[in-house]
Amino acid sequence: MGARLIVAHLDLDAFFAAVEELEEPELRTKPLIVGGDPHGRGVVATANYQARTFGIHSAMSCAEALRRCPHAVFVRPRHAVYREYSQHVWETVRGVVPTVERTGLDEGYLDVGEVAEDFLGARKVAEAVQTAVRAATSLTCALGVSTSKVVAKIASDHRKPGGLTVVPAGTEARFLAPFAVRRLPGVGPKAEQRLVAAGVETVGALAGLGDGELKRLLPGSVGRVLRDRARGIDPRPLELSTERISISVENTFERDLTDRAQLHAELRGMARQVAEHLQKTGRTARTVSTKVRYTDFSIRSRSTSLRVGIDDGEQIGDLACGLLDRALADRPGALRLVGVGVSGLASHQQLALV
Questions:
Q1: Catalytic annotation on 107?
Q2: Which fold has domain 16-78?
Q3: Does the chain have fewer CB atoms within 10 Å around its N or its C terminus?
Q4: Rounded to an integer, what distance in angstroms lies between the CA atom of residue 14 and that of residue 46?
Q5: Does the model's pTM come out above 0.85?
């Protein structure tokens, strides 16, 4: 790590849609939505910036997206293609900044302090990263640079697409203060509702809460953590032992499903896909998760962790089906969606050295 903590958050711009535009250049001038069936129950994975002008965003139902933009082009996600582009991007980034924590296919944190002595140098490094990514992949990315993860992440979203925001040491709280409180990572819908109801609508207002008011609104340790973040204080280091990226596959059904055998068959097919990717990339996974969405759109997930990583589709499928049974035992009902995910990834080489 560098002597001075300077961290950047990199976020690829509308990644899935941008890849589709590179693969099919004629899509660049059209509102493009990557997601499920707009005439069924699909969900928007991402949308290009033309589509976003119609108020379309990720996690919106594709049917609603179609209502807002009837002339939009819908394409199904191609995760294998996105993984290839992502791998190329991060190989390129590491050529400029060696120490990286990937948090997803399209985003992650960089230890810029390792290669820059101050924030002027950090800006030049961030610009070099953007140039290198664009030259290698034709993709654009936004970066935020500051002294902590929380500030860097908010800064990277400040000038999307393709922007760069540098928040030097000593200016973090002033930069964060005007943003809506929901923009602060860790503030979920319930916390936002409680804070706004009390007149705490901005990050700056949260930063200024006294101990008593903070404890009343956000009891427990979470309140102190969020107030620290609102003040630009975030001691989390980059996590470098393993990349915190997971692999998952999910499917939204045309009709709600209740048949347990059919649900198990769906999960086993997804488990095979996950296992194929693990085997292709030479990785194992220690945690298996099953996700379910009910007819009222509520989501439940169950997971289990193993002492030794696995990459076998049958084992992953057995665990996923068991987790589904647990979820349905806790709350029976018809399902709109099921998914299988794995995390706690490690390479076979890493496993052998333990």
A1: yes
A2: MutS, DNA mismatch repair protein, domain I (3.40.1170)
A3: C
A4: 6
A5: no
